[in-house]
Amino acid sequence: MSQPYYMIDFSATMCTFEIRINDYPVLDMEVDGQVSTLVPVNFAILETGIQKILATIRPLSKHKILAPTTNLNFDIKLFDVTHDFVFEKQFGAYQLPPITSSVKLPVVRYASSFSAEVPYVLKAWQNGIDLNEMKDLSQKLFSAYQNLSNLLKAKNYTEFTRRLARRENNMAVALYLSPAEKKARLNGLIRDAQNGFDVMPVAKDSIVRLYGDGKVAALKKINGDSALFLYNEEKNEELMIDVGFYMAAGKSEWEVI
Fold first, then answer.
1. Strand 198-199 versus strand 229-232 pairing type
2. Which residue, 106, 98, 120, is CA-closest to 60?
3. What does the alpha-carbon distance between residue 105 and residue 114 come to, in Å, rounded to a whole number?
4. Tens digit of each residue's pLDDT (9 = 90 or more) over 60-79
5. pLDDT tens column, 98-124
6. What number of other Cβ atoms are within 10 A of residue 51's Cβ?
7. 3-class DSSP state of 221
8. Are the C-beta atoms of residues 44 and 21 closer than 8 Å to each other?
9. Which of 119, 125, 114, 118 has its CA nearest to residue 50?
10. Quick one: DSSP state of residue 151?
11. Do 234 and 192 touch, CB atoms closer than 8 A?
């Protein structure tokens, strides 16, 4: 198989949940209702080998314990996308055990692993410093987000694109994008920024989240969405720009990952 494409097929009901692969988020959302779909996860698979998976299920933000209606189930599906989406197999199935009213659970965690074979090695956060040891991390990270936001506000799309180069290169490699498809990813975002979507201020009460075994940091809103986003008032629509930052060993500047 020359282009293996791994996806999570999930269904969630009445919960806030996060799924990480190799300690990097592939899903992070609050579901006040029910949602189910498939999402690609190749971008969190850095190379062939054993991949760690961790699911964390919490109650909705207005509640303290999981409700009996809470549910999360998922499995990993493998496709070959060399010529078309051809399903190969599924594995790693998980089903949240039933929640009873007599057992008051504030959180459920599930850890497992699966083996993946991919034809690439991503240069991501492997050589990043441990951000747990960085002084004033929150302040420094806020400044990094603010700098990205200011580039969009100033319509400096050339520099904005340059800042996102490593992330976009990794996405293109992991998702087998053509040069045209890679270019279209960023062009779509820039097009939205030029047509009705305004850059919103980075909320000062954003929460610092660490990923990649402490080597990647991101700012998140209370509901888990990215702190960097655009908003279209006419459509009442938000466009999240999901980025993380890391700092390579021996360097002193943030890099988007």
1. antiparallel
2. 106
3. 27
4. 988 999 999 999 999 999 99
5. 998 888 899 999 999 999 999 999 999
6. 21
7. coil
8. yes
9. 114
10. H
11. no
